[in-house]
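[audit] Reproducing an earlier prediction to check determinism. Same input, same settings, fresh worker. If the tokens differ from the archived copy the diff job will pick it up downstream; this log only records the rerun itself.
[audit] input (312 residues):
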Amino acid sequence: MMGLSEFDLIATLFAPLATSPGAFGLKDDVAMIAPREGHDLIVTTDTIVEGVDFFGDDPPDTIARKALRVNLSDLAAKGAEPVGYLLSLMLPENIDQRFLECFAAGLADDQETFAIALLGGDMSATPGPLSISVTAFGHVPAGQLVRRSGARVGDLVFVTGTIGDSGAGLSLLRSKASNVSSRLIERYRVPEPRVAFASAVRGASASIDVSDGLLADLAHIAETSGVRIVIDAERIPRSPEMKALWGETATSIVRVATAGDDYEIAFTAPAPISDVHTPVTAIGRVEQGNGVALLDVEGREIAVPRKGFSHF
């Protein structure tokens, strides 16, 4: 149970995170974001729920960081730099003050890492489960927002980082394996949003962050752009740790391409886009047609019953 009231918790744990002048020290009903000259203000929101997006016994600081970072990933995929966020907490009875102290500490660490600040939010009780909603704001140079709808026939398809690590980490947590890869579990618990790649991705024709699964998210680009996206399965970048756990069979590659929770950036562009801080791999191409296809080394389409995660 809580040792402090709602307003005491806000004043003690969360007001210190509200370092932006526009947050008013969390002592008002609204916050104010000063528009940056020559930029558009971008907004995104995501909710993570216990038992769906994280485990109830995950460390509280990692839960906080995941809630924030999945939103920063959305901003980065649009070419936007983060400036601040709103936080809403739906707290069941088993959440105590110690949990929230660790949770707030995780947010404080990420605020320093990504140079952002809490702007406000809400807190409420719930019969469960624990749910956390973050709304994040970012700036992108005027007219340079990268949408899903810009892919064109002849573009190449790229993805940052490696794919499948988070799904592999989730499988380890579910199996409660004793000999586990801490790196894979860390990728699941604390994603690494490609914030540093935001400026580079502005050269893309279309972009999306990989949350529901590589194929599922590329299918969104294909649909909104009115094109067909073809992926060469063997080109999908996979880490040594993931390969050691899941292997390198065709079944494994399908699992990698559909697992989700990677929070890498998948994008299309007429020519390669590089960044010294971010590994980028060309994995396919944009063609006439519709949908998304995964091809083996001989150019045959691999059957994929389910392209990614769906909440419903």
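[audit] rerun output stored. Observation attached for the diff report: Residues 197 and 276 are 9 Å apart (CA to CA).
[audit] end
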